[in-house]
Design brief:
The protein is of the alpha/beta class and 516 residues long. The chain contains 17 helices and 18 strands. The chain is globular, with a radius of gyration of 24 Å. The structure holds 3-methyl-2-oxobutanoic acid and zinc ion.
Length: 516
């Protein structure tokens, strides 16, 4: 058997997807789920990018035991130092440092000669080695780099101890046969001096095909993300790569992965609910339609013999299509069991809180599906401390010609404040009154609402993106309720809490002072 290492970068490259930012608690939940999924390396962030990234990587480093925790770092001292400090508690740790090697990047972005780039790469790897034994080096934009220059720089970084050499197709330019040929030549050149890794972007929709072609040509690590999240058109999707290798073992054997396949669907759902980015319905493996058969001929075929139209059994990826879960009469024990099957690692207090929310939901909703439980935990339980908390929301009845109004009570610092506002519509009134009570003036950048499962009594999940400060990026908030307006108010206050936490929490922990 030849094991391929799965390097997941959902928390780093995936977070670079427009609108996919996650808070620290959410990142921890995802990291724990990735560990359960069996990924070999978790790229937990880019420590020098922000105090929030640094904090998330350190917390993940002290919690995750089985996967290697990695931080990205540019080939500069401060970045590498931040990465080294952030991962220091991890039982297995790696620094991933990179510099661009393509003529276009060296000339216009770095404004450095190829010799200077080699020198910088060598210094970076040597410095990273002073923090940990496991160091990965990436040639950014390798897909458009000269292969002779790649060999020169790889040779130089191997000399100072780089263990893994990553070849990214940063702009998703290469075709599968070209990517395969490049990896074959580089693997033969490097031989067993280091592991060759690939990192393919999806600009031409070829990221997974390119990755698989690299695997058969000598790559022994693949970098990928859950649901194919990532910069622009995204990265190669983890679930597609590993299921292709498993399903077509006739072609890929003896290549195997360590993935625990039954955790694929729970991981995909967790990432979708945390980021608010749903995979397209026809997305392979995890899209809503991946196992749906519309035509009568197909339905008939599947009923007679499943393999007539399905090459993967939904159960193999942890998707139980018929799973209607617990009802009104279910006990705490069964509920706890369900949480663990769905991949959550919650404290006893969080389980109690989730159970209370579940019981409230049972009174409002007839059938409760796995996705309801996932949404409930992701939205209501795994969250940062509530600086502002919504206590009540009251809306005026909508009558033609009437004036829409909203009244709220919000708790802050153990004090409750009640106020009301009118607006151009009910939603406008809700945002206005929250702004007034909390003393902010948020600008709504994006608003999305969707039903979590089917039925008129379905839970509404609202995702908002709000800018509370022109000089800072907009933040996301999620809200869940059978009532859409209540979900909207919760989402808006959630975004405000994320913003306050980012601003206040990190200032209090003094991370900014560390100069990171
Ligand atoms: O796409 C890319 O080149 C990257 C590197 C930093 C590995 O994400
Ligand atoms: Zn990338």
């Amino acid at each position: 058997m030849i094991p391929i290492k799965i390097f997941d970068t959902t928390l780093r490259d995936g977070e670079q997807s427009p609108g996919a930012s996650m808070n620290i608690e959410e990142k921890i939940q995802i990291a724990l789920q990735l560990e359960k999924l069996g990924v070999d390396i978790i790229e937990a962030g880019f420590a020098a990018a922000s105090p929030g990234d640094f904090e998330a990587i350190s917390r993940i480093s002290s919690i995750v035991k089985n996967s290697t925790i990695c931080s990205l770092a540019r080939a500069v001292q401060n970045d590498i130092k931040a990465a080294g400090e952030a991962i220091k508690e991890a039982p297995k740790r790696r620094i991933h440092t990179f510099i661009a090697t393509s003529p276009i990047h060296m000339q216009y972005k770095l404004k450095m000669s190829p010799d200077e780039v080699v020198k910088r790469a060598v210094e970076a790897v040597a410095y990273a080695k002073t923090f940990c034994e496991d160091v990965e080096f990436s040639c950014e934009d390798a897909g458009r780099s000269d292969i002779g220059f790649l060999k020169e720089i790889l040779d130089a970084v191997i000399e100072v101890g780089a263990n893994t050499l990553n070849i990214p197709d940063t702009v998703g330019y290469r075709l599968p046969h070209e990517m395969g040929a490049m990896i074959k030549e580089l693997s033969e050149f490097v031989n067993d001096r280091a592991i060759i890794s690939v990192h393919c972007h999806n600009d031409l929709g070829l990221a997974v095909a390119n990755t698989l072609e690299c695997v058969v040509n000598g790559a022994r690590q693949v970098e990928c993300t859950i649901n194919g999240l990532g910069e622009r058109a995204g990265n190669a999707a983890l679930e597609e790569i590993v299921m292709a290798i498993k399903t077509r073992a006739d072609y890929f054997a003896p290549i195997v992965t360590n993935i625990n396949f039954k955790e694929i669907y729970p991981t995909s759902r967790l990432v979708a609910s945390v980021t608010g980015i749903e995979p397209q319905p026809n997305k392979a493996i995890v899209g809503k339609n991946a196992f749906a058969h519309e035509s009568g001929i197909h339905q008939d075929g599947v009923l007679k013999h499943q393999e007539t139209y399905e090459i993967i059994n939904a159960k193999d990826i942890g998707l139980d299509k018929n799973s209607i879960v617990l009802g009104k009469h279910s006990g705490r024990h069964a509920f706890k069991d369900k949480l663990s099957t769905l991949g959550y690692s919650l404290t006893e207090d969080e389980i109690n809180e989730a159970f209370t929310r579940f019981k409230i939901l049972c009174d409002k909703k007839k059938e409760i599906f796995d996705d309801d439980i996932r949404a409930l935990v992701a939205e209501e339980i795994v969250k940062i401390p509530q600086i502002f908390e919504l206590v009540t929301l009251q809306l005026s009845d909508c009558v033609p010609g009437g004036v829409p109004s909203a009244a709220v009570t919000i708790r802050h610092d153990d004090k409750e404040t009640t106020d009301a506002a009118i607006g151009n519509g009910t939603m406008d009134a809700v945002f206005k009154v929250i702004d007034r009570v909390c003393g902010v003036n948020g600008e709504l950048k994006d608003y999305k609402v969707e039903a979590v499962t089917q039925g008129k009594d379905a839970l509404a999940k609202v995702v908002v993106k709000v800018a509370f400060d022109e000089s800072k990026p907009a933040v996301m908030g999620h809200g869940l309720s059978v009532d859409t307006m209540l979900a909207t108010a919760k989402a808006y206050i959630g975004a405000l809490n994320n913003y306050m936490h980012m601003k206040e929490g990190l200032r209090m922990k003094g991370l900014e002072k560390k100069g990171i």
